[in-house]
Design a protein that fits this description.
Layout: E1 6-9, H1 15-24, E2 30-33, H2 34-37, H3 46-56, E3 59-63, H4 77-83, E4 87-91, H5 93-96, H6 100-109, H7 111-114, E5 125-132, E6 140-147
Parallel strand pairs: 1-2, 1-3, 3-4, 4-5
Antiparallel strand pairs: 5-6
Helix pairs in contact: 1-6
């Protein structure tokens, strides 16, 4: 039997919000925050911590880091997750811009989908974002989708 997935949050969701989210999840799962997992975690380059968690296995990274900002020292997180075969969920700018409680609520709303990400090939990429709801004017709906990765 496989061990359950482990969820690693970066700074996209603060540590207190991550803990509050974990308490809402009915099944006990391992949650970790980058700022607590490694000594000096908040200052570590992605290229330092990604290989470490890859060696431990079963991590699913939840991040708002789309890897789009200019040149980053140490590589871009989505590319590193692909290279090291770490399944990852990207929160769009619209989700990331939510206040902490609303962001926690959005993640919880899609938790049934998120909790199953370990069933996909290692290195798979998913995205959570708001899209215009069809036929409803300005209303938006929260979407969760697999992302095709161009190599």
């Amino acid at each position: 039997m496989n061990s359950p997935p482990r969820f690693l949050f970066d700074e996209c969701l603060g540590w207190p919000s991550m803990e509050a989210l974990q308490k809402r999840i009915p099944t006990p799962l391992e949650f970790a925050h980058i700022t607590k997992l490694f000594e000096g975690g908040s200052g570590m380059l992605d290229s330092e911590w990604v290989p470490k968690i890859a060696g431990e296995g079963r991590w699913i990274v939840i991040t708002a880091d789309q890897g789009r900002r200019g040149s980053q020292k140490g590589g871009k997180l989505p590319r590193l997750c692909l290279e090291y075969k770490i399944t990852h969920l990207l929160l769009s700018a619209s989700v990331h811009a939510l206040n902490s409680q609303a962001k926690q609520d959005a993640i919880f709303e899609k938790w049934d989908r998120i909790s199953c990400l370990d069933q996909y090939s290692p290195g798979s990429r998913f995205k959570m974002r708001y899209r215009a709801a069809e036929g409803s004017g300005d209303a938006k709906k929260l979407c969760f989708e697999a992302v095709e990765i161009a190599t």
